[in-house]
Specification:
binds pyridoxal-5'-phosphate; about 220 residues; alpha/beta
Amino acid sequence: MSGLEDIGARVAGAARACGRDPAGVTLIAVSKTQPAARITAVLEQGQRVFGENRVQEAQARWGERRARFADLHLRLIGPLQSNKAEAALALFDAIDVLDRDKLAAALAEGAAKLGKCPDILVQVNTGEEAQKAGVAPGEADAFIRAARETYGLPVKGLMCIPPADEEPAMHFALLAKIARRNGLFELSMGMSHDFETAIRFGATQVRVGSALFGAR
Ligand SMILES: *Cc1c(COP(=O)(O)O)cnc(C)c1O
């Protein structure tokens, strides 16, 4: 079994185990820093949804591939500086890391200029870690409202990266709860070591890097 088939089977298995439709969980292949040959192999096996964490690295890697694979779907899952908002809007099909007003303003301005806006997820810093991006859980409702109403952004859901040294389940549960009370349906949560748990807590997108491609 290839890495992709193996992970796909584990995603589907985790969904079925909690009574969910496997089609309701999208596997995002996190290709950051992976060698080109590994990415090509996964593309050839049919994977089309990829996550990258840097705008410039993604431009270099996907610019040309994008022309060859029309159904490619690229998501930005790493920190975005507001001066790169326009470049990110031009390249990505979704930006999953909105977490502050300045970035919301830059995305709104860029989207108006380009005449298009990809789907947006708000990143929540569920563990309230100082070094981590994301809006604090207590500020999430107000920020989501501002992103939608003040900036007119198409916010579709939430994303989180739980603290590395804590049980992720409580963070996944918190993210799901914030999404529910804000009428949001997309939940990007779960990585190589905890995506099955995330699916149990309602993840609609799991971000899998090393378990799929091998160690970085
Ligand atoms: C790198 C990265 C992942 C993938 O991590 P793995 O543990 O290799 O699966 C997922 N999400 C984000 C935001 C990342 O930066």
